[in-house]
Each structure stands twice: as C-alpha cells, then as structure tokens.
C-alpha cells in the first residue's frame, strides 16, 4: 500500500483525494492532507487527515507527496518532501521556470534517491515528446486557448477587456519560461512540455483569450528526427475553478496508480 500525502485541498486537491478514497488511484491510501488553515475545511475534518502542521504531515510518513497547491507550495515543500524520503509529484510544474529551484530540487532528488514525478495533467503526448527528445528534436510549439471565464483575476485583464472581447485575442507570445512566470496558474502545461522536450527557452508558446469556446484547448506541434506530431486536447474546466480541468486530478490518479500497477502504459 502506497501512502500518499496531499498538499492543497482546493479544486484539484479535493478531486485527487476523492479518487484515492474511491479506489481510482490504485493501491494507495491517503495518509494526510496539508493545508494552510484547517479552519477552512471544517466539513472535511471528520476524516482526521487534514492538518496545517508540516511536522504532523510528515509524521504520517507518506511514500509520495502530491502537490496541488500552486508554485509557492513547490518552492516550500519539494526539497523538504524529498529529504523526508518521499517521491514528489508536482502539478504546478511551472514553478520550475525558476532554474535555480529546478536545479536544487533535482540535486535533492538525486541525493536522497527519490523522484520528482510530473503527471501529464492538462496536456497530452508528453510521453511522445519525451521519446522524441532523445533526438534530435527540432521544434516544439504550444498554443493555449481558454474561454473568458478562465482568465478572470489573471494577467490577461491587463491586456484585454474581458467584458467586451468578441474574438480570439492573443495575449502572449514568447518562450515557455516567460509564459510560466506570467501565467503561473494557467500555463503549467508549457513547463511540463518544456521539461519533456527541448527546454524552457526553445519551447514557443502562444496564449489566447477566446470568447468563442467553452473548453480549455491546448495544441502541441513538434518536429524532429522522429517525424512530426500535432496534438489537440480540449479540457472541460472545473465549475469550481475554470483555471483547471477535471483531467488534472484524473491524471494524478493515473500516475499514482502506475506506481503500484503491474502494467504501465506510456
């Protein structure tokens, strides 16, 4: 039985917890959930799993820690989790646009003989890109389009009037390192794609506000020695948080299931 420690209990965190408790994440058990303030989750405290104490959380001795709480949680807990002998599964992979953080975490993982695990989350084809990167991989491009509601409270509001926009509008063009900094909650996919493929600087990203759609759409294209691939995914946004989709928790559950499954695909 693999003991899972979960950091964060927002939309994705709750969905991951439900998947584990419902048996959809393989031979796993939810050992503890770490949050900033347990007072916000009084309705969930009957399980006795939720704590705002880092010491109590790691005292539950999780085998793998799953982060669903944002970039700050990666910065604060990635190295700590690894030093406690836990694998670290990161959803907010955009935090690794900070090269110094990335290097420290990778060094810590090697030192402690543990792994940093990146589920595919909102994107598809990471296994194909990672295989193609064995080389050479010439180019990787990501185009992300999301409906207006997904951009409320983000940098997009400084670029376009979300109340009046009528057609698809580009709000960012650049490389993946820049996009991960500008859209920490919305373009984690660009960071995952970069780590799988040609790196943050070489991965090109376009981001659009699109009032004509109701799903989050990610289009990936890549060329190299392997040939060429084009992938489009359309993710249904969560009603509780349109910046994320149902598939994120599903992907985490599948990645956890793979840790104990006799058959791993991809």
Describe the SSE topology.
Layout: E1 2-7, H1 11-21, E2 28-34, E3 50-51, H2 54-59, E4 64-67, H3 71-83, E5 87-90, H4 99-112, E6 116-117, H5 126-132, E7 137-146, E8 169-175, H6 176-182, H7 188-196, E9 203-209, E10 216-224, E11 227-235, H8 246-258
Parallel strand pairs: 1-2, 1-4, 2-3, 4-5, 5-6, 7-9
Antiparallel strand pairs: 7-10, 8-9, 10-11
Helix pairs in contact: 1-8, 3-4, 5-7, 6-7
Give an overview of the whole structure.
Helix 3 (71-83) packs parallel to helix 4 (99-112) and helix 5 (126-132) runs parallel beside helix 7. The protein is globular, with a radius of gyration of 18 Å. It has 2 domains: 2-121 and 247-258, 3-Layer(aba) Sandwich (Rossmann fold); 126-243, Dihydrodipicolinate Reductase, domain 2. It has helices at 11-21, 54-59, 71-83, 99-112, 126-132, 176-182, 188-196, 246-258, and strands at 2-7, 28-34, 50-51, 64-67, 87-90, 116-117, 137-146, 169-175, 203-209, 216-224, 227-235. With 266 residues, the protein is of the alpha/beta class. Helix content is 30%, strand content 25%. The model has no long low-confidence stretch (mean pLDDT 91). The strands form 2 sheets. It has a 6-stranded parallel beta sheet, with helices on both faces. Strands 8-9-7-10-11 form a 5-stranded mixed beta sheet.
């Amino acid at each position: 039985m693999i003991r899972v420690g979960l950091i964060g209990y927002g939309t994705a965190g709750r969905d991951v917890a439900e998947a584990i408790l419902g048996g959809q994440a393989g031979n796993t058990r939810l050992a503890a959930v770490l949050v900033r303030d347990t007072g916000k989750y009084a309705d969930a405290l009957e399980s006795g799993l939720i704590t705002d104490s880092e010491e109590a959380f790691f005292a539950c001795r999780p085998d793998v820690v799953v982060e669903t709480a944002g970039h700050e949680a990666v910065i604060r807990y990635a190295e700590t989790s690894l030093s406690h002998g836990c694998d670290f599964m990161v959803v907010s992979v955009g935090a690794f646009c900070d090269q110094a953080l990335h290097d420290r975490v990778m060094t810590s993982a090697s030192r402690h003989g543990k792994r940093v695990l990146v589920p595919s989350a909102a994107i598809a084809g990471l296994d194909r890109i990672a295989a193609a990167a064995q080389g050479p991989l010439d180019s990787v491009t990501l185009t992300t389009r999301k409906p207006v509601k997904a951009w409320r409270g983000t940098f997009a509001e400084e670029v376009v009037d979300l109340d009046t926009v009528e057609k698809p509008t580009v709000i960012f063009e650049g490389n993946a390192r820049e996009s991960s900094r500008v859209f920490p909650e919305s373009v984690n996919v660009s960071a995952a794609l970069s780590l799988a493929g040609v790196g943050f600087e070489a991965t090109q990203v376009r981001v659009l506000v699109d009032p004509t759609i109701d799903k989050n759409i990610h289009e990936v294209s890549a060329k190299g020695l392997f040939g060429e691939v084009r992938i489009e995914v359309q993710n249904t946004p969560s009603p509780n948080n349109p910046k994320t989709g149902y598939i994120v928790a599903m992907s985490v559950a599948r990645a956890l299931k793979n840790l104990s499954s006799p058959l791993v695909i991809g």
